[in-house]
Amino acid sequence: MNQICISRLTAVALVAVCSCQFASAATSTLPPLHHAGDITYLSGGIGSDQSSAIKGVMHNYPLVLEFVGRTNFGNDYLADVPVQISDTHGRNLLNVQTGGPFLLMSLPHGQYTVTAMYKGMVKHRTMDTTAATHAHEIFEWSM
User: Fold this and answer.
1) Which of 12, 36, 63, 116 could pair covalently with 105 via S-S, beta carbons 3.0-4.6 A apart?
2) Which CATH number fits domain 32-142: 3.40.50.720, 2.60.40.10, 2.30.130.10, 2.30.110.10?
């Protein structure tokens, strides 16, 4: 092989190694997965590394919830938000307190009621999940 081909192969190998290390680092900063019945979820987003890692995998989850507080200076991410997921029959499927501003969920296709509370203020949303959609809902409270 000539020198140019060897240099190109070395550059390609270096890019591949760096890409794998970046993907591994992003995965390692994700919060752990949890399971509740048929629901798999993760919650977090505290700090820029974990927030970036979560944003990088959002597209893999049919339902993404985001929690923010509106202030005079802009929006602030919220954590420790109690969230309840119920089915169309009112059965409680998940009760969780968020570990950051994001809650990503994989759940069976259907219609769900999401209830979230911050400082005594309750918000309800009806959400549909299907194989073809990725729902991203922002819950916002005035602070």
Assistant:
1) 63
2) 2.60.40.10
